């Protein structure tokens, strides 16, 4: 297969010596991102401070992320992590009798369950939709989401096996039941097209260190403008106020839109990285990235099965993202062995995840699977 993005590979130094297939954990860092981090550090070294410029870069990052998901910039807030976003949203809710059910799934990242279960002492009741053979059947949302459901909290792409959900179909169901839809897009943003308006998503969270090709320390929260204006966050800070430069310690005046969910000074260095990384993704186009990753994922599934590996990723193309997960006993140990052989993959529980990005090739995947099968044979 001809690599349509071969000219971008030199932007990622790690590819010169390693096969990097762990975008589901940490995307490869580009020279453009590294240069943006250096620019931030140099401004501190030479000017002693860069407050105003750094704030502008945060706004640039917000604007770029908004464009990436089809939102307006005033519908985006910057926080430190997706876990922080979950807690900020959960603590803003009132769990009143008759409207106090939180529905999530057993395929969501543990943070989701942890945060929602922590709200039970405040009146919430948590229901987990069970998975069935590595997927959540759409009809389960009809069964588990009821008129007393306040929020339906789901992942777009499952971190464990790459299962991708039909967000618009789920939104139609849960909205008919009177529930809000909260989407964890950490494993999809940057590799799967997202349009929050067309998909009718109420709340969405994403971090930057995976397919968005940034570093830890920054996450983005989207909330529909009309919904954000109704909420008064209990997790707040001076950046979440209408005019934080007034330094008014006696009064809370929430900022307009989703910005009211911001707290303290963001990680500026992470914002510099995010702005540069998302610019690159927008230049290529997530639709183009998604089409290419569909081909790589199909190859990974086909070649993995040919080599005798057991996949836990859905075989249907419309039910998966860019992650291919193979069942592997002692996955963590196998991940470490492969890393010593210059192949970077990611283990979770009992699977090895192969998660390419646009900079990867079919040969990368072939070599990784060949080495994986060699290691598994040697460690039987």
Descriptive report:
This protein has 380 residues and is an alpha/beta fold. The protein folds into 2 domains: 6-29 and 286-378, Aspartate Aminotransferase, domain 1; 34-281, Aspartate Aminotransferase, domain 2 (3-Layer(aba) Sandwich). It has 11 helices and 12 strands. A 7-stranded mixed sheet has the order 2-8-7-6-5-3-4, sandwiched between helices. Helix 6 links the parallel strand 5 (149-155) and strand 6 (180-184). The protein is globular and about 65 Å long. The model has no long low-confidence stretch (mean pLDDT 96). Residues 50-362 form the Aminotransferase class V domain. GO terms for molecular function: transaminase activity. Its cofactor is pyridoxal 5'-phosphate. InterPro entries: Aminotrans_V_dom (IPR000192), Aminotrans_V_PyrdxlP_BS (IPR020578), PyrdxlP-dep_Trfase (IPR015424), PyrdxlP-dep_Trfase_major (IPR015421), PyrdxlP-dep_Trfase_small (IPR015422). Keywords: Aminotransferase, Pyridoxal phosphate, Transferase.
């Amino acid at each position: 297969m001809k690599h349509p993005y071969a000219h971008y590979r030199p932007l990622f130094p790690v590819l010169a010596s390693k096969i990097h297939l762990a975008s589901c954990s940490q995307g490869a860092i580009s020279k453009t991102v590294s240069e943006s981090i250096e620019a931030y550090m140099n401004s501190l070294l030479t000017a002693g401070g860069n407050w105003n410029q750094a704030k502008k870069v945060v706004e640039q990052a917000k604007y770029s992320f908004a464009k990436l998901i089809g939102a307006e910039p005033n519908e985006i807030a910057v926080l430190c992590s997706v876990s922080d976003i979950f807690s900020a949203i959960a603590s803003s809710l009132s769990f009143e009798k008759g409207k106090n059910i939180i529905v999530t799934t057993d395929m969501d990242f543990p943070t989701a369950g942890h945060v929602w279960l922590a709200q039970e002492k405040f009146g919430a009741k948590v229901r987990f939709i069970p998975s069935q053979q590595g997927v959540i059947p759409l009809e389960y949302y009809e069964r588990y989401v009821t008129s007393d459901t306040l929020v339906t909290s789901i992942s777009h792409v499952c971190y464990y096996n790459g299962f991708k959900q039909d967000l618009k179909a789920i939104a139609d169901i849960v909205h008919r039941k009177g529930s809000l839809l909260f989407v964890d897009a950490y494993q999809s943003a940057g590799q799967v097209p997202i349009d929050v308006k067309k998909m009718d998503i109420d709340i969405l969270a994403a971090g930057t260190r995976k397919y968005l090709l940034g570093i830890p320390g920054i996450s983005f929260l989207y909330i529909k403008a009309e919904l954000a204006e109704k909420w008064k966050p209990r997790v707040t800070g001076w950046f979440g106020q209408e005019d934080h430069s007034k330094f008014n310690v006696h009064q809370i005046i929430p900022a307009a839109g989703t910005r009211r969910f911001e707290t303290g000074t963001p990680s500026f260095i992470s914002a510099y990285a995010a702005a540069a990384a998302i610019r690159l993704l927008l230049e290529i186009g997530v639709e183009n990235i998604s089409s290419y990753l569909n081909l790589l994922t199909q190859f990974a599934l086909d070649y993995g099965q040919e080599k005798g590996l057991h996949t836990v990723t859905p075989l249907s193309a419309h039910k998966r993202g860019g992650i291919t997960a193979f069942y592997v006993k002692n996955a963590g140990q196998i991940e470490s062995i492969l890393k010593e052989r210059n192949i970077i993959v990611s283990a979770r529980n009992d699977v090895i995840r192969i998660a390419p990005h646009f900079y990867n090739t079919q040969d990368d995947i072939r070599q990784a699977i060949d080495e994986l099968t060699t290691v598994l044979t040697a460690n039987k």
